Amino acid sequence: MQAQLEQTIAGSISFSGIGLHSGAPVHLRLLPAPAGTGIVFRRTDLDNFEIQAIGRNVAKVSYATSLMRQGVLISTTEHLLSACIGTGIDNVIVELDNLELPILDGSALPYVEAFQSVGIKVQRRRREYLRILRKVEVRENDKFIGVYPGDGYSITYEINFPAPILRQDFTVDLAADAYGAEIAAARTFGFREDERMLRDMGLIRGASPENAIILSRNGVQNGNLRFPDEFVRHKVLDLIGDLALAGHRIFGRVVAERAGHAMHTALVSRLLADRSAWDLITLPQLEVTRRPARAARLSPVQV
Ligand SMILES: [Zn+2]
């Protein structure tokens, strides 16, 4: 069920780890925030400089999504933002003492588990949804992403890398609370053959078998998958995190094919720039209708 009111975490949460690309050690602290705050990053190593997680602060995007304001960078925001959207967290202050969020286990599961253990607090303000009124699409060669009017928030993703294991597609309806069970645990992945090139580019300095699925031509090199289609589920995870930069939870249907962070954030920019393609709405409280379906199902057993 979709919560209709804004939410925050009920207490503070701490993590420490290393950045996937920088390899830099970082401490992260998530703090409850008042209604209307949104998701705000705070660099405690730079006089508490703040950057809001919204589209106009998106910086260079290649292998991870970064935010930048006045030259200050916050890197690899997508997994935490994804966990927030997936679990219905609207307002949180994210303190960190370095430039990149920790990669943790490569998924959003540590965040989701922490939110569940500390609790989620419902706030007294109606959540505004960004309702899609007409389609917005971005196409680049064989890559595609589009958003369409829809009832709720659903995502369909298709990937098609040149390896049989990586032809997968997945659809999730986030309104049905599927995030925790179907998306959160899916880990990031990379190809062994790209490793040298990426390291030469100054990327994946923090990557290890503990925080990423490593693929070669022969398949997965480190352990078992958490889902047979974990790769495409992780793409969905990333997309949810990147679309959080629209600044409001989307009310519509998203379709992506062979996309990535650059395409995801290009869609956010195009969407936000086209004011006729969306409006902001609040949803009425869902009526609590106790339909007799359950009781009816039980009755044949009782008879
Ligand atoms: Zn990712």
Topology, element by element:
Blueprint: E1 5-9, E2 13-18, E3 25-32, E4 39-43, E5 49-52, E6 58-61, E7 65-69, E8 72-75, H1 78-87, E9 92-96, H2 109-118, E10 120-126, E11 128-132, E12 136-140, E13 143-148, E14 153-160, E15 167-173, H3 179-183, E16 189-191, H4 195-200, E17 213-216, E18 219-220, H5 230-243, E19 249-257, H6 261-273, E20 278-282, H7 293-302
The protein binds zinc ion (ZN).
Protein described:
The chain has 303 residues and is an alpha+beta fold. The chain has a single domain (5-281), classed as lpxc deacetylase, domain 1. It is built from seven helices and 20 strands. The strands form five sheets. Strands 11, 12, 13, 14, 15, 19 and 20 form a seven-stranded mixed beta sheet that branches. The protein binds zinc ion (ZN). The site of zinc ion has 5 residues, from helix 1 and helix 5.
